[in-house]
Each structure stands twice: as C-alpha cells, then as structure tokens.
Fold each of these.
Amino acid sequence: MDNKFKQKLIGQLNDKETEMNEAEFLSNLEADILPLQQFITYYKCAIMEIETKFRVLNEQFSINSESNPIEFIQSRIKSYGSIYRKLMAKELPRTLSSIEENISDIAGIRVVCSFVQDIYRLANCFLQQDDITLIEKKDYICNPKANGYRSLHLIVAVPIFLENEKRMVKAEVQLRTIAMDFWASLEHKLRYKKGLPQETLDLVTDDLKKCADQSAEWDMRMQNIKNLIEQ
C-alpha cells in the first residue's frame, strides 16, 4: 500500500474517532445538562405565573380608583451552589426528585408593598385564587424573628402548563413593606461581615434589632396616617 495513501487513511480514521468521541461527549453532556435546564425552567415559569397574578391584582386596585398597593416585585432562582449546600445540610440525596420534594424556595418572589394592610389584603386575594395551593404560611410581621426580621412568607404550589402536561411547582412568596425590605437588605449585607470580635457582633446585633423595631414603628405610624386620611 502506498505510504501516502496509508497515512491519509489513518488520518481519516483518526478524524472519525475524534468525531465519534466528541459526539459521545456532547451527547453525555446534553444528557446531564438538559434535564437540569428543563427542571429550572419549571421554576422560572412558576415565577412568571405568580408575578402575573400580583400584577393583575395591582392593576385591579388601580382601576378601582385605589392607590396601587405594590411598590415593586423582585424574583430570583436559587443558585446551583445554594441548592447543593441545602441538600448537604439536610443530608438529602443529590437528585432532581430530591430537590423537588424537599426544597421549597428554589423559586422566590418578593412583593414589596406600601403599607402593612396591603400585605395581608394582597396575600388574601392571592390565596383565594383556585389554582393556588398554600403549603405553609409564616407570619414574621405578627411574630418577628429574634433579630427583628419582619415579612410574610407563603410557600405555595402553582400550576404551569407545558406542551403535554400540567405541573404543580412550589415557590416562596415574601411580602414586605418598603421599610421591612430596606432593613432586611442592609442587614443581609452587614450580617456577612467576617472577622469581627464577639463584643462588636453583640453590639451590631443589638443595634440592628433596634433599627428593625424603629422600622416597624414607622410602618405603624404611616398606616395610621393612611387610615386617618381615608376616614
């Protein structure tokens, strides 16, 4: 066999083997990634469904010649790292089914309202909708956390309609006033300050709690003013 022809044939075989290896690699990669991407898409769809429901309620109140109760809406999907750490902390299997069954806040929606009464009014209207299933409710407004954190948390399941199926997807909805959100956002940044001595940490914790209580007082006073105006 001619040497040039032999080298050409070997080169073609090597190219074929490389193509096959690349194809196999890409196939395996897609097999791992696509189910995860599809899984996360379910939660993105749940966020869109829930956001739409709150925007419709906000628009309805506006049409009824009332002030819009919602200042703004934020949403997020929990990062892969956060999901992994939560599984590890709970000693749960690292599978999609385990994530779906045991983690309720992969999809998070924060609804920031003008007044405390708006929170409960919106929550009641939202939960009355027949396609919303309430799984858990935590009222940190009536019962604040020890550090002063205040918010109304709802774990719900909402249906999303796909090409060939309907799926119920869990999400966490947090409803807060502007003052509650302001405090929580700054507290979150300050809380992760590292290397502080215990004495400083104690002082910071005490001051943050006082700020939370003052924020709650502002909310109460603003609500009272609103009630007085509307009488």
Amino acid sequence: MEKITDLPFLFIVGRPRSGTTLLRTLFDAHTQVSVPPECQFIVNLYGKYGKKTNWTKKELAIFFNELQKQWRFDLWKLDNELLMQNLLKLEGHHTYATICKSVYLTYQSVFPKEEIMLLGDKNPGYTIYTRRLLKIFPNARFIHITRDYRDNFVSIKNVDFELPLPALAAQKWVYFFKKIQRDSKKNPSAYMHIRYEDLVNQPEESMKAMCGFAGIAYQPGIFNFHEKKEEVLALYEPGFLEKYHASLLKKINTSRVGLWQKQLTDREVKLLEYTAGTTGIKAGYQLSKTRFSWLTPVQALPGRAIAAALYLATLVVDKLPATIRMNLLSKGPRVLGKLFLRLFNPAKLKEINNLTTKNKTP
C-alpha cells in the first residue's frame, strides 16, 4: 500500500487538439508508465470524496458505481471485477489520492509494462484545475502543451469538436494559456511547457527533456507506438481513430504543422489573430496580419462573448454543492455534445446514434 501512495503522478494538459493525445500515447508506450484514456473523474468526484480519509466497503462500492457513470470511463476497458477487488483492499484509512491511484493501476495498457514507476493522466479539461490537482497530489507534475491557435482551429473544425467560430476557439485558447501561466508561476518546478511544433520537429530531444522532468528514464522505443495500430484500433468504435486521432496510427511527423496557411480563409485568420493578439505572440506564434479593419472586433464579438459565458459557467458550476456539481460534470459533456451536434451537425449525431444502436444489438 505504501508503494501506491508514493507513486508519482504526471498530468498532460493543454487545449483539445493540441497534441495531448500524442503525448499521452508516447508516455503510455513507456514500459514503466501507465496513462489511461481521458476521463475527468478525479476532479468530478473530488467534491464528494476529496477530503475523505476513512473508507468502508459500502462507501468503496458506491465510489465504484459512480466511476461507471463518468463520461469516457468506459474507454478504459477495465476488468470491473478486478477494479472492485482492488478498491475493497483499501478499506480503512486512505486518502482520496490513494483511491484514485488504485483505479489507474487497474488499467491495462496495450503496451507491454514492467514495474510501473509513474502514473499519468491526459486531460485538456484539467488545464484549469492544476491547483486543485496539486492539493490532491502535492508532488504531481504537469506538462502543458501548446499548439498554434490557427492550426488548433483547423483541427477543431475538421473533427466537429466545438462551434466552428474562430473568435470562440481563439478566446478559449487564450483563457487556457493565461490560466496555466498564472498557476505555473506559483509553483514553477511542477510545470513544464512545450510547443506541439517543437515536439514533432525534435521528438527525441523533446521526449528526453520531458522524461527527465517526469523523473523516468528515456526509452527510444516509445516512438514505435504506431506498431500497436491493430490493438489500439480494437479499443475504439470503427472509424473513431481514423476520424479523430489518425496521427496515432502513423510515425510522429510534421504534416499537421502550418495547415492554417492553406485551409483557413483570410477572414478566419484575421479573427483568430485579432482575438489571440499579444497572448499568441507571447506563446511564440507571430501574426501574419498587421492590420485589422474596424469590422474585425465586431465580427469577433459573438465568439468572444460565448467563450466568456462558458468560462463564467465553469466558475459557477465549481461553486455548486458537491452532488449537483458531480452530476453536472458527469452528464454535462454528453448533453452539450448532443446539443451541439443537433444544432450544427445533425448528420453526425444520426451517425453516432445509429452506431450506438448497432453496438447494443445482440
């Protein structure tokens, strides 16, 4: 039990479509690291269990049941009988951190493992919760990956992740970047910042630096992650990886860098650059436009307003009672996702519903 308590935690954070999944795969390919797929249960369940230090079998069983309701937890493909057994072993005095680590240790990666020396979590949503995560795991470390906000918007548009509004995407990018910068200044040794462009242009140098930061030995074999293509494909619904994470099926490359120069309109670039402004420059991304028309601020206003409303909603939800907040965070992503598709991509929603019905048919 002491070993579980002492296991260090690494969090991979950043905007969605910025390379967090690539980083997650590279670290999970390490023989001494385990990084399950994305699921935000640590923060979602923190309000109810975060300060708990004594656990009965009944409470552990309830915790197990609430885990099953978490969005994307099903992607872990856990042996639930084994998970329950591992949780019940923790009856008695244990922190919430130890309970969470037990769940992570139950995950079985497609990559071969030796002794696990580091647990990892890739979660774009955790970018705004790093201070809370440090309360749970005082020795946690964070790798924050940033991607050119213009390429980020191209990727978001291509996979229907969010409303395809340039100013909305850029404003959220700004919020995330500023939040992680503020938090990292308070505890700089716990944070490492890397750009997606540097990772794909200099993968070995980048991974050596990140492994050193995480406290593990660098293994060149991690770059062979694409050799597990068939095993990885089997974990997801047909077509999912090809649509959302096609790069994980290939060797690491620079093909996704600079796409915005060919795939975005002049208007989209202006809205993105106007909204990101000096923050984008601070992150290392130079403007291609030096002048904006008087219409640009007006055109950017709706997207920026929506981003501000979403940010405010996040703050409000964070102050709600634990049970209400837990339900909202567990069910909210599904509801919002379906609402977005119903309004802006009904064909995609129909495709998902048909696939779900097909998979449930015996």
Amino acid sequence: MVTTPTRPAAGKAAGRTPAKPSIRRSPDGSRQKTAASRPVPGNEADRSSNDRDNTLPGKLSRMWIFLEGSDRKASGSSYYLIVGATLALTAIGLMMVLSASSVESIASGLSPYALLIKQAIYAAVGLVMMFVLSRISIRGLKRMAWPALGLSFVLLLLVFSPLGYGVGGNRNWIGVGQFSAQPSEAAKLALALWMATVLARKAKLIHRWKHVVIPVVPVAVLAIFLVILGRDLGTALIIMLIVAAALFFAGAPGKMFVIAALTGAGAALILTLTSAHRMERVANWLRGVCPIGEAGCYQSTNGLYALASGGWTGVGLGQGQQKWSWIPEAHNDFIFAIIGEELGLVGTLVVVALFGILAVAIVRVILRHDDPFVRILSGSIMVWIIGQAFVNIGMVTGLLPVIGVPLPFISYGGSALVFALAGIGVILAFARKTPANVESSS
C-alpha cells in the first residue's frame, strides 16, 4: 500500500507542541481521531493577549468591566448586592443597638429591650418604604420631586415652632405626643430627588454656570441655612456633600467646585469660630488623646479605648465595658466603637466591607444607565450614605473631629434609618431595570 507522507503540524513547524487530537466514536462503534478544537497552547496571539491583560491599562479595563457588568446579569447581581448589604447592615444595627443600650435602659428603669423595640419598628417602616419605592417608575419619582421638597421645608420650619425641641444642644427635632422625627433626614432625600429632576432637565445646558446655579444653589443654601439655624453643623455638612454630588454627576464645570469648596470651608470655619462648643471639639481633635476625665473629649477618648480593648476578635457580644456610661449614649454616634470593642477588628472590617459592597453595587447601577436623572439621583444617595458612614467612622477613630453624625443603618435613630432605607429603595428601582426599560418608563 502506498502512503502519502504527512505534512508536519503547523505548531511543530513553528517550534510548538501541536494540540492533541480528540477521540470520538463513529456510528459503527469504531474510534476516530478528530482535530482538537482547543486553541494551541503557547499561541503567540494568546500570549500577547495575556501580556496586555497583565499591564496596568488591562487591569483597569477588567476592573471597569467588573463595575459596569452586562445588562441583565449586572441588573440582577447589583440588585441583590444592594439588598443583601443593606439588610446585613440593618441586622447588625439592631443587634448592636440592643447591646449598646441595654445597660443605660436598665439604669433608667426601662426594659433592656426598650430601644431595640423602637428601632425594630422603625426598621420595619423603612423596609416597607424601601419596597414601595423600589416599585415606583421614573415618571412617578419625578412627579414626587416638588411635593417632597415643599413638605421637607415645611418640616424644617416646624423645628422652630412649639412642636420643635432640642437634643444635645441642637434644635433639629419635632414631636407630637410619643412620635418624634428629625426633618433634616427627610430633607436629604427630598433635596437629592428634586435636584436630580431639575438638573436632568437642564442636561444640555449644564455647561453654563447660570443654569447650574439657578435654581439649585439658592434652594440648597436655604435648606442648609435652616439646618444650621438649629445648630446641627454635622447634618449641614452632609447636605453639602449631597449637593456637591448632584452637581458632579450632572456634569457641572470643575471651576464651580473649587469656588464652592472654598466658600464651604470658609463658612465652616466661621461657624466653628463663633461656637465655643465646636471650637473645643476641634481643639481636642488637634491635640489627639486628651487627659483622662477631661469633659471636652470624654466621649472620643473612651471611644478610642473601646476600639483598642477589642483587639482582633473583641471581648464578646454584650461583654463590652465602655457602654457602662463611659461612652455617653453609646448606641448613637459612637456605636462603631462598641462594635470594635465587642466584635474586634474583624467586626469593624465586616461593617466597612459591607459599606464597600454597597458602594460598588451602586456604582454599577450608575455606570449602566445613560439617563441623567438616574445617574444624578443614584450618585447623590450613594455619596450621602457612604460619605456619612465614613465621616462617622473617621470621627470615632479620631481621623475627624466629633461632629455628631450617625452611622447609617446601625446607629439608633428612627428618622435616619427610615430615610436611609427609603433612599436605598430608590436605587433598587433603577437596579431592577435594564437601561432600555428605564428609558421606556421615563
């Protein structure tokens, strides 16, 4: 039998090992060799592609793809990441409110579960609002903007009526019987919604400073003024962050941010210099750890002691000592210190990681949509919640002065919890839909 000599494999001629042929059975049961379908190992194109992927631009490109995701797949994953992180933070908050408040509740003659029950009721209300808002269309949210803004200003003005009262030197509460609320928390969400509606309509004119300033800046300044009038500088700073985020995601000129930053810094400096209490807090922050027993930094010093005593894994849930009146109202602004003491560094890192997951998921929602309303509103809510979280953590760890800002989802406070969950509900409304569905519903 005459056989035709076979040609050398292309891979072999190039000095590479050829791919192994695969074996399959024919209909008559005999085995036959077939050409391999896999790419040849050592292929120069594959190698150069891998080299490109290992470069800094390649890594950044992969990170961008991860953040942006694909349409339907990213929609589902972002939605569940947001829901999961929010529910986990809320559950941690309820657990830590019970642990941090039980001692002072017993000392006041109340049930150790008194504040937990109140916080759980507010959590239930907030979760219902989150679910309802996640089902509202873009058109429905835009229609709510002006009424929500008007109602928030009415509530802010009621603070200075007989219904208003102060807590800790700040007059920022209203109460009717057993019901109490903090209007500035509602103003955060209402202002973000209204600014997104107005700035989205001006998307093509946003490069002109007049259309950026009017009417957004005057309305925002009025809201900030009413909050500062109640001596709540911490909340006013968070509202400033929300306004800056709305303008940034709307595409406002960069020069405006420089002017706004200088103006805001000057205003904050004047407000600090004109208040002995704020001056004392800033001075103690600049000094670092204060002497034991000094009233001006009693809370911040004991907060650092709580974090230091927790170690890696903490002293155990419910076993902390700093909540025994060493940290006044430990269940409020300094609850992160109790987490560090009882759950250790591991517990604090879990909380930080959950906020990080929430931030990444919201960024994915923002990147998937071209609708300026969706981007502005989602970005504003993200900066509000994530920014406030890290301001609180920085305050507890001594990186920032104490300004009285609660930790979202975790600190005790019904108004803050309800409206933070409501803000997440708005983002879930966007995360549930692909960009095509969002455009059709707007």
Amino acid sequence: MVVGAIGERTDVVVIGSGPGGYVAALRAADGGREVILIERDAIGGTCLNVGCIPSKALIEVASFRHRAASQGVPGLVTTVTTDMAGVGEHLASVSAGLREGVGRLLADAGVTVVPGTAHFARRDRLSVAHEDRVRHIDFDQAIVATGSRPTLLEAIPFGERVLDSTGALALRELPESLVVLGAGYIGVELGIAFAKLGSAVTLVEAADSVLPALHPQLRRPVERRLRQLGVTVLVGTRAVRGDADEIVLDNGATLRPTYTVVAVGRRPNGGTCSVEVAGAHVDDQGYITVDEHLVAAPGIYAIGDVTRGPALAHRATRDAERAVGHLLGEPTIAPAAIPEVIFSDPEVMSVGVTLDQAADAGLGVHRFPLGANARARTLGTDLGGVWIVADEAGTVVGVHAVGPHVGELAGEAALAIELAATTQDLALTVHPHPTVSESIAEAAMLARGLPLHIRR
C-alpha cells in the first residue's frame, strides 16, 4: 500500500459476491446507498459456480441416468451411455446463465463490481489487489461475505487424482472407482450422484454412521438406499495417508481408486481479508465474531459462512437482509428457524426443533410414513416419512422429512414455525392431491388424533 494514497469513495463496500454478498449489495442499493461489490473470482461465489448449483444439476442428471439405465421406469426399455464432457458442459451452462442474471441485477441496481482481493488497510479503507494494480476504496460501512473453503487433509494433499468437491464437479471423465472421504451431506450427495452415473463408490466416514449429524430415523432411509445403489460404506474409519495411487485407512486396509474426493467439511474465510485491522475479532477456527445485528466492529458487518451457524446459502441471504436492514436503520428480526436440505436419495429436510431435542424436552413427535402417500408411490418409492414436532399447545416447533422432493416442503415448514402455526392449522390447510406435501397435513392430522390414511 502506498502511504497517503488517495482512495475512491463509496457508502457501502461488500466483500464477496456469493448469495450473501450480492444480496447485501442489491439491498443496500435499494436503500439508496452507493455500493461497491468486490469479488476475486466469479460473480455468485462458491454456491453458484462450484457448489450448490452445479452439484444439484449433477444430481439431477445422475438420477435421470440411473432410472433409465436400471430399467427404473416400468414399461420402458432403454440403453444409456454417459458423456461426462457433455455433463460438464451442462453444469457450466446452468451456472453461467444464473451468473449472468446476477450480473444484470447488480448492473440494473447501480452496483459497481470491482475484481480483486480485498484487505482492510484501516477501519474505513480497503486495498484491492487485481493483477498488477492496487486500488484503495474508502467507505462508511463494509459487509464481509467471504464465505468458506474446503477443509484440507495434510496427510492426503490435493492434486492429480485427489480432488475437493470443486474438482469432483469439474471431472470430464467418469471414474471407474471413486473414494469419498467424509460422509456428511457433501460426501453423500456426491457419492450417490457418481454411483448413479456408474462409478463404483466407497464412502469413508470417521463417525459411526453416514450423515452423523442426523437423527437415526432420518438417516436410515438414506443408508438403505446407499445399499441398494451398491455404495460401499466404511464408518468408524479414517484415512491416515494417501496420494493419487492409494488411500491407506486406519484399519490397515488400502484403497486404490481412480479418483479420491476429500469432503470432510469446510472452513470459514474469516481471516482472509485482514478484518482484524478494522477492530473485528476472528476466533481460532476462522469465524468472525458478531453481535445480534451481525456487527463485527463499528461500521463493519459479517454474514454467512464467516460467522457461526449453518453454512448454507439461504442463511447467508437472510443474514444479508438483516445486516443491511440494521445498516439502514430499519427494524430487523432474526429468523426463528433455518431450513436444512440434503439432496441425497431420498432427500432429507429438517427445520426447527430436532428429533433429539424433542425427545430431551418431552415434546410430541408425529410421523406419517411415505408408504401411505399416493404421490410417493407414483414416484416408485415408499422410503421415508414426515415428522412434526409440536409443543403441549399444539404449536409446530419442528418439521422433518425424508423422501422424494421433500426439499420443496422446507418453505412451508419454516413458515409454519415462523407464524407459530398449530397442527390444526396445518391439518385444515388444503394440500393438493396427489403431492408429497399432503404428508405434512397427514402428520398434523395424526397429531390431532385424527389420522386419515394410516390405520388407527
């Protein structure tokens, strides 16, 4: 930095253009502020370019391929070949279309997008390095939305045929065999997708089960489906060292896959922009400490994955709305619940009080099995169900589901909790037939003591 350099001036600067950053920029511009958005890579961040969006597109392609190849549609006889180069082009096209759309929204809102890597030079100034140039931006308020990055394993470095989740989504050939280290939601989603595409997949998980954060009732249908897909699951097992040729496990076994994907979690990027210079605190795990308004230091906000909480795109988006609302002097309300969706097969949706918390608190849990849901049967499955958690007054405090397309139920579930709806409210709400959403009403009827499509 050049001492005394003259900086550009703006009202609000946002660092990072993921689902938190670009929404913060748009909302601040909506509030009449002059906004600069800084992004060192592609607009849309990890989620849009190398995470949520391309991974879900891959999952959809894999599901189509598997149903066709496995004669999974009664009455249809098909042959299928997998062209991974074509799949890759499709994933890139989906991301590119959305990225261009976000770029147009930012332009329409008058947001100035500046490429480069930002660091705080002082409380009210950023230095932004791009190629061989450094520019300085002075601001009134800043919002840090720098996201997260894959966790590394020192004993198994990335390179060649050892990939992170981003590298897995960029593959242009189908691995004959694939080892996925980590069976949390990222590992399970990728493992199922590649198994459906035709790879021989092995999941290696240090905990005692796949999806270890889930209640056993929610993960059992996924475990059953993994067996049906021929996925080898090694739980209570760690990879102690490895390279492109072999992965050595703590039980002495050696795996020699075509590719290895390390999916053991993500780390926050809280310490990557020198926010401590502005007076913020970054803990030893890389999270920026914030108050109830997401303020990290006077005039400095932090949102999304860089703060403690679920590392989810929609949480970052909601954080953006809250942070900008506070910045503009508007009243803001923290959400009552953040929905979580795992795009496994079957999908898993969870919002509000968990089944473990319900058991500890003695709350009522009411389950409707998808085997009794007509839409699930037309989709060829009876795996899963819907669980409603209600308090003594019948107020809905948690909703969980496992089954096809249950991620689409998460919005209704979150709304019910936000509005303190009762099981009677849900039971009396007309749900279209035949849909999986009917299972929410059916579980609510069960909670009222009036089950409909299950035996009494």
